[in-house]
Structure formats: structure tokens, C-alpha cells
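Priority: medium. Attachment 1 of 2:
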């Protein structure tokens, strides 16, 4: 496990684990030992189990190992107090403060801006006849969208794009680059919070400040950490959803044609079920973020000791044949699709409505504007980014007929 060959196609290995060792203890590349939970029923139970804490303080490893179990650089930058690292009641309080920004109604109001961003990005490469859909499209779309939502001024958004790009390289950049980017981002966020306090707007950071001023007791560090995790979790998942989703469609031409036909007829139902199926089939989050047992417990017949880390393998659970019919087949019209792609329980992904909106706009617009889109490289030559939690392509080269050359 965790080789480049495994990263290319982890699903056979996950299938073996589901059958032979569904709750499996392994040593990760970082040296930390953890339990991998791979069956759907066990995964769903674990995601909702209050005895599995998100707080790394419950890890039984020495202090030096704790820095290996979260987002690189967040500990040194003092950005640990966010939704992925805390439990109730603090989690309940912080989630309540930010949840109104991600209601279906609020997200729907943001749809015109997402469509504007989608079209403007495609405009930049449409006449070239080729593009890298990760770097030129799937990456900038969610980063600019989440920056708009947070209230980052347009003139500063390219800096955010650079820092975010470094953060998702997972070791592919210069040594220490991730930690430096996280530190720069924290400094900028603290400065932006001060500016918003003096001159608030209708954005999410201003809303957090207003809540703090009205007795919700949001500290400055909490506000910075909240903005940081919304940015980090709010863009990389969507980069991967768009990239993995488009790759799956290109590798399954019958399903891609089915979706294009549906879109051409002005229908939206297949797009809705299709995005859910792409989340299940090859989703953006391979393993749910870290959990730590606060007391002894049993998962899938396996005893877990207090202090042990537990990683729920969403990619394995979502292809469990005990839960999904013909799970290795992509079926955009799949109905019974209660996948775990965005988690389950109190830590269910807060930004899921926004990610779905962005994915639908991205995929539908690409297929409509570039109808003969095709892979521009041999699938065997594509590489997946390293890293434990996320699953996404480094590049996705495509070719197509420029609009001006079509008859």
C-alpha cells in the first residue's frame, strides 16, 4: 500500500482488505500506526461514533508524532483550532457560526458567480485545442470561488492561489514550502480579519467577526483557523471532484455520452445523480480525516485501544458490494446511492452544497462547450498526487476542437 502503483488504482487492494482484514492495522508512510476501516457498515458506524475524537490530543503517540496526523504546517502556524480538530461543544459552536454561509439557499445565490468563473476559465484555453484541466480549470475555479465567499479582495486572490498550490503538492515542492505557505496564509488572514473588523462587508469573514462581537466568543485565532480550514477543505476537495469526475467520464465514454445527451435535452436530473455517482466511484477524499479513540471500543469485531488513530477509508466503503450493486461500474443514473464521499455524522462536510454546485457547473459547461473533449495522454502516464487523505490527479491533459474550427 501507499506506493505509486497503489495510488494509481487502490481499489483492488481495498477490495482485498474489505474481504480479509476489514479493520486493518498498518504503518503509514509517516511512521504512525493506524487502523484502516474499509467496510461500508463499519465506516458509517465509525464516522458517527462519539468515542472517536477529532482532537489530536487524544493520540497516544509521543508529541513529535502528532504533527504527522493533520494538515502540514497547521500546528506550527497555530491554526489547529478548526472544525477538523475539535469535538463538541466547541465544534457545535463553531459549526453553527459558519453553517449559514453554506445553506442550499445561500449557495444557490452564489451560482451566477460560479458560472461566470467557469466560463471565464474555459475562455482562456478554448481556442488552443488543448489544456491541462487540473492547472487551468479544476484548480483555479474553487480557489477563486472560496476566496469570494470568504471576502478575500480580488487583487489578493492570486497570492491565495499560489499558497494553495503549494499546500496541495504534498511534498512535490521545495522542502518546507507547505509550512511556509501555511504561515503566510495565517499572517494574511489575521491582517484581513483586522481590516474586516474596521470595514465589514457581506462576506463570511465579516460574518464570523459580527458573531464574535455579538457574544459568540470567537477568538482571533479561531477566526483565522476557521477561515484557513474553509479555504483548505473548500478547494482541494472540489479540485479533485472536478478532476477525478472528468477523468472518469473520459474513461467511460458511454456514460459521458449519456450525460451529454441529457444536458442537450435541457435536463438536469442525470447531472444531479451523476455528480453523486462520481463522488462514490472515485471521490476526492480517499480517507476521512484523523480520529482517535478516547476509550476502548470495537469496530467490525476488532478491538481498538484508547489513543489509537482510526482512519475510515471512504474510497473502500463506497465500493463495498454489500452496500452497492456492481460497485466497480460507473452508473450516472444510480438511485440508491447513500455514499460516504462527504462523510457522515456531525462532521459531514459543511461545504458539500458549494462543492456540488461547482462540480455541476464545471462538468456541464465543459461538456457543452467542448463536446469532443478527449484525453491528451495515455492513462498509464498520468500521476496522482501523494498524500494520505485526498485523492486527485497531478495533471489531466485534454484535447478538443476549438470552437472557431467547428463546422
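Attachment 2 of 2:
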Amino acid at each position: 500500500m501507499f506506493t505509486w502503483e497503489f495510488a494509481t488504482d487502490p481499489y483492488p487492494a481495498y477490495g482485498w482488505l474489505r474481504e480479509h482484514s476489514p479493520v486493518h492495522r498498518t504503518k503509514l508512510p509517516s511512521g504512525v500506526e493506524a487502523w484502516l476501516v474499509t467496510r461500508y457498515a463499519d465506516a458509517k458506524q465509525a464516522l458517527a461514533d462519539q468515542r472517536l475524537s477529532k482532537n489530536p490530543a487524544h493520540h497516544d503517540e509521543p508529541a513529535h508524532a502528532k504533527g504527522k496526523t493533520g494538515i502540514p504546517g497547521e500546528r506550527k502556524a497555530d491554526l489547529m483550532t478548526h472544525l477538523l480538530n475539535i469535538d463538541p461543544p466547541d465544534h457545535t459552536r463553531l459549526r453553527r457560526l459558519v453553517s449559514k454561509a453554506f445553506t442550499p439557499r445561500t449557495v444557490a445565490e452564489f451560482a451566477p458567480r460560479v458560472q461566470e468563473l467557469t466560463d471565464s476559465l474555459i475562455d482562456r484555453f478554448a481556442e488552443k485545442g488543448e489544456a491541462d484541466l487540473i492547472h487551468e480549470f479544476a484548480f483555479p475555479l474553487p480557489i477563486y470561488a472560496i476566496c469570494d465567499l470568504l471576502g478575500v479582495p480580488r487583487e489578493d486572490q492570486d497570492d491565495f492561489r499560489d499558497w494553495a498550490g503549494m499546500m496541495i503538492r504534498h511534498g512535490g515542492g521545495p522542502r518546507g514550502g507547505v509550512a511556509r505557505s501555511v504561515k503566510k496564509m495565517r499572517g494574511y488572514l489575521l491582517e484581513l480579519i483586522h481590516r474586516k473588523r474596521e470595514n465589514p462587508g457581506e462576506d463570511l469573514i465579516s460574518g464570523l467577526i459580527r458573531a464574535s462581537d455579538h457574544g459568540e466568543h470567537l477568538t482571533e485565532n479561531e477566526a483565522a483557523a476557521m477561515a484557513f480550514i474553509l479555504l483548505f477543505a473548500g478547494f482541494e476537495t472540489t479540485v479533485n471532484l472536478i478532476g477525478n469526475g472528468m477523468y472518469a467520464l473520459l474513461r467511460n465514454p458511454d456514460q459521458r455520452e449519456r450525460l451529454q445527451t441529457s444536458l442537450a435535452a435541457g435536463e438536469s436530473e442525470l447531472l444531479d445523480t451523476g455528480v453523486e455517482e462520481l463522488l462514490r466511484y472515485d471521490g476526492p477524499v480517499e480517507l476521512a480525516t484523523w480520529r482517535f479513540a478516547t476509550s476502548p471500543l470495537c469496530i467490525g469485531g476488532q478491538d481498538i485501544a484508547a489513543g489509537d488513530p482510526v482512519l475510515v477509508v471512504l474510497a473502500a466503503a463506497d465500493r463495498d458490494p454489500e452496500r452497492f450493486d456492481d460497485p466497480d461500474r460507473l452508473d450516472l443514473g444510480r438511485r440508491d446511492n447513500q455514499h460516504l464521499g462527504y462523510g457522515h455524522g456531525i462532521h459531514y462536510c459543511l461545504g458539500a452544497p458549494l462543492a456540488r454546485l461547482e462540480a455541476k457547473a464545471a462538468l456541464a459547461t465543459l461538456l457543452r462547450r467542448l463536446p469532443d473533449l478527449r484525453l491528451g495522454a495515455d492513462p498509464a502516464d498520468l500521476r496522482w498526487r501523494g498524500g494520505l487523505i485526498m485523492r486527485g490527479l497531478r495533471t489531466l491533459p485534454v484535447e478538443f476542437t476549438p470552437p472557431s474550427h467547428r463546422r
